[in-house]
Amino acid sequence: MTVQLGLFDIMQTDPLDTRSHFEVFAQRLSDLALADELGLDAAFVAERHFQRHYRASAPGPFLGAASQRTSRIRLGVLAYTLPLHSPVRLAEEIAVLDHLSNGRIDVGLGLGHRPEELQAIGVDPGARVTIFQERLIIMEALWSGGAVTIASQHNTLSEVTISPIPLQTPRPPIWYAGTDPTAARWAGQHGAHLAIGFAPLETLKPAIDAFRAGRETVSPERAAGGGRVALMQHVYVAESDSQARSDLIAALDRLRALNAGHSQEESSANELDRLLTRDVLVAGNAVSVAQAIRRAQSLLGIDLFLANVYFAGLSDDAIRGTIKSLAIDVRTELAAS
Hints:
Elements: E1 4-9, H1 21-38, E2 42-45, H2 59-69, E3 74-81, H3 87-100, E4 105-110, H4 115-120, H5 128-143, E5 148-151, E6 156-160, E7 174-177, H6 181-189, E8 193-197, H7 201-215, H8 220-223, E9 229-237, H9 241-257, H10 268-277, E10 281-284, H11 286-300, E11 304-308, H12 316-336
């Protein structure tokens, strides 16, 4: 089976980029239009709060804009931190996005891996599992067209319905983003998909094994809606492996000159090697990148590869070149294997 290819944008700011937020969002939307035109399969953005070096505080409005610049690529968030959200408001937002995109929305959900985000608005990180599960049940009931009444420690609703309900039935696809095996097993049992990444591949295998073990216990009705595994990594595709290495070292050197949080005791070349060795970054020509994706497919059984192409310090041309190479050259290599 050929791995599907898509994009993942964490919306991290580039300290070398002096453009306004408006200009950066416009460029990102243009990149998504290109990805759509070239036939990439999916594009996800992140959700981050209370951090100045991210532009990911409101992924919903961004996807609304993206839905009008694209026509076929699937769009989603990896992941909404569900304990931060009103389940009614989030269910409504996702339903409207599903109609704006003509049924192309995927829903990524997470527990909240940064406790400080939860604490900042008074959510107890120790209760996040209970909050997550309860709010997901509420959202799925609302998406089905039901009226929800609940009185609990974390949610109080009285005969609440939403309109419209999502275009996709019975609901948009749900992804769980996380590497904890217990949570991954739950995702498999719930009929969700699993998104993992930015870590050594071998360390991700326990979560995938737990996810598939959970799938074995799911009902046929639930099983039909999930089961996919996506891997997220930083990616840069160049004409040659040596060119990719040269370009990335130069980008790291420019960041180091700004003292942008990079260790001054580690050379840019060593930092690049560390990123490559830890499977955080895949870089090289199209053949090398395809080989790395095939390795991940062989080891983990992934069927969707999501590339974060926004490596700080790279030019817009280099980034769009990576998008084009993924859609054309890397896809061709994968199809030929």
